[in-house]
Design brief:
Length: 184
């Protein structure tokens, strides 16, 4: 069973409630739509250029597939990144999400626990959410608002629209609902 995505209302609530590393992690995960393995290994230099300015758009080779994915960070996210990097004294070569041990990044287990904590903040059943919920959240919101599966495919870095349709649980009934809403 696929884990649930966070809704737009939940995203807004969490942006209000979270602070520090958790806010940066949540915001970058939501904006970038990166898989856990790619997200947790981001370095400060991946999101801030050599002049200290935020990189609002970046391309990364995905570890799982070897394909390129381009992602964009919102103004909100770039600001929380800048504030966090400055407050923590992080350098370009440091992981954006440092782990408990020096020189390591946040572990997948720690990230998973945080996502479950975020679900509980939203008064949701934490068992229905996982790190993959973060990847699905923005895609679900974009699809819900635009019904543009190709945009979602590109954001996810999927090879085919068929994969994205399965990923977002888009069925023939969804397609018929769109047609009905257009009055056609």
């Amino acid at each position: 069973m696929q884990k649930k995505p966070f809704s737009y209302e939940h995203v807004l609530l969490l942006r209000e409630k979270l602070q520090g590393r958790d806010l940066v992690l949540f915001s970058v995960a939501f904006d970038s739509v990166l898989r856990k393995s790619d997200l947790l290994t981001l370095r400060v230099s991946d999101v801030i250029d050599i002049n200290g300015a935020p990189k609002t758009r970046e391309t990364k080779i995905m570890e799982k597939t070897g394909r390129k994915v381009t992602w964009a960070l919102s103004t909100f996210t770039t600001q929380v990144i800048l504030d966090f990097v400055e407050s923590e004294g992080l350098r370009p070569e440091n992981y954006l999400f440092p782990g408990r041990s020096d020189g390591e990044h946040l572990s997948g287990i720690q990230y998973s626990r945080l996502v479950k904590k975020w679900a509980m903040i939203c008064k949701l059943d934490h068992k229905e959410f996982s790190t993959h919920s973060m990847r699905r959240s923005k895609l679900s919101i974009v699809y819900e608002r635009t019904k543009d599966i190709e945009v979602c495919r590109q954001l996810a870095g999927h090879q085919s629209v068929a994969n994205t349709s399965l990923y977002l649980n888009v069925s023939a009934n969804n397609a018929l609902d769109v047609v009905d809403s257009l009055g056609l």
